[in-house]
Structure formats: C-alpha cells, structure tokens
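Data availability (excerpt). The following record was deposited with the supplementary files.
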Amino acid sequence: MENLDLRTEHRAVLAEIEVQKELYLTLVLKLEDLTGTVKPNLEALYAVKIGHKELELLQKQAEVAGLKYQMELMIACINKKEKIDREKIEQIVQQMLEDYYDTITMEAERIDRAQKRLEHLMSPAESAAIKKLYYEAAKLLHPDVNPNLSNEQKQLWNVISEAYKNGDLQTVRSVVAAIGSMLSTREEIYEYDSLKARLLLFKERNRLLLEQITAVQAEFPFTFTEKLHDEEWLKSEYLITDCKLQELNETAKKYLDYIDLITGN
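Predicted structure:
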C-alpha cells in the first residue's frame, strides 16, 4: 500500500469509480434479467394468450391453401382433357402442405412449452431472493469489477451464473453462503491517470448497457407487456382473429363447392 495516494482528487475519482461499478452491476443484472427471464416469460405469456388463436388461424390457412391447390390441379386436368385422379391429386396436395404442417407442429409445441414454463415460474418472493443473492455474489465475483479473481473464485462465479440462469435458488444460496466471508478483490491502481482511465471505461460500458437495455425493451415481446394483461385488448384481438377465420371458412366452402361441381358430387 506504499503507492497509496490520498489526495483529494484521487479520493474523488475512487469514489466515483465505486458508484460506476455499482451502476454497472445493476445494469448488467438488469439486462440479464430482461433477456434471460422477463423476455422468455413474456414470450410464453404471448404464446398462451395469443398463440392459440394464431395457431387456429394457421391451421385454417393451411386447409384453404390445400383446397385451392386441389381445385387448381383439377382445373388443370380438365383443361388438358385428362381424367381427374383424386387420390393422386390429394397426394400432391399433401406434399405441398408439408411446410404448413411442420410450422403448425412447431407452433403447437411452442405453445405447450410456454404453458409448462408459466406453470413453473418462481414465486415473487423466490424471484426477489435469487436476484438479491446474485447481486451480492456479483459484487464479489463478477470479473468485470473484480479483475484479480483467483481460479477458484472464477469457478464459483461460473457456478452461480449458471444456477441463476436456471432459476436454481438453492444452488445460488449455497454458493453465496460459501463466499459470505470473502472480501471483494480490489485492483491496486492508485496512479491518477490510471484511475481516470478506469473511470472512463466504466462510464462507457454503462452507456452501452443503457443503449442495449433501451433497444431490448423497444422490441417484441416487451411492446406487448401491458396489452397481455389488458382483457379488453385481448378480446379485440380474438374478435379480429375470429373474423379472419370466418372469411377463411367462407373461402374454404367456395372451394369445396367448386370441387364438388367439378367432380359431380
């Protein structure tokens, strides 16, 4: 500690660095929470509340596309003065619809996963507890604010980071308990220019993090945060989808009637 300089300007920069470190950790954890927890949860909520109607619409669109293609193939046979082979035409139509079916299957699976995710969410108390513990650990072990970590400390950070991502509250508690007596590792930098450079680095990092957070919150599904809890908005969306379904049903009937006319049914 012989190189310690306690001049007023040094103390001021050191104090500001600590403020910027705290802000950095706050922003890093907020971004992690937004992308790793809030976003997936909102996507799941959207899938459950809106996705099932979108899936119903997709299924009907596939049905209409199949009928339209079937009708076109039959008309082509008539124009060529060929016999209409319904079995062959249906096989061709099924092949054409494979991409639709794949998409429908994926959407159905996505909605199922979303439902399961929402059924296994942490309670508000558990969520608050894991965030608090993770922040405490980050102050001691996050490599960006603790550059002189030992290999053991780095391993502990990797363990707690993975546990946090997986919502493993018990593991997070265990790791925090293991590091409870560990002092924060400080970098021995006391030259004024070095301190100023470190301060500027944290300020730039924080500026970039704020931009990232703003950009994330401006995208889907965050743009639907309030709407997904607005029953009136949900009703209006369901009504719009039902109108689209009604139009598709009418189109499907027209195609079926025309197919019956062509085939003499």
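Summary of structural features: Residues 1-5 have pLDDT under 50 and may be disordered.
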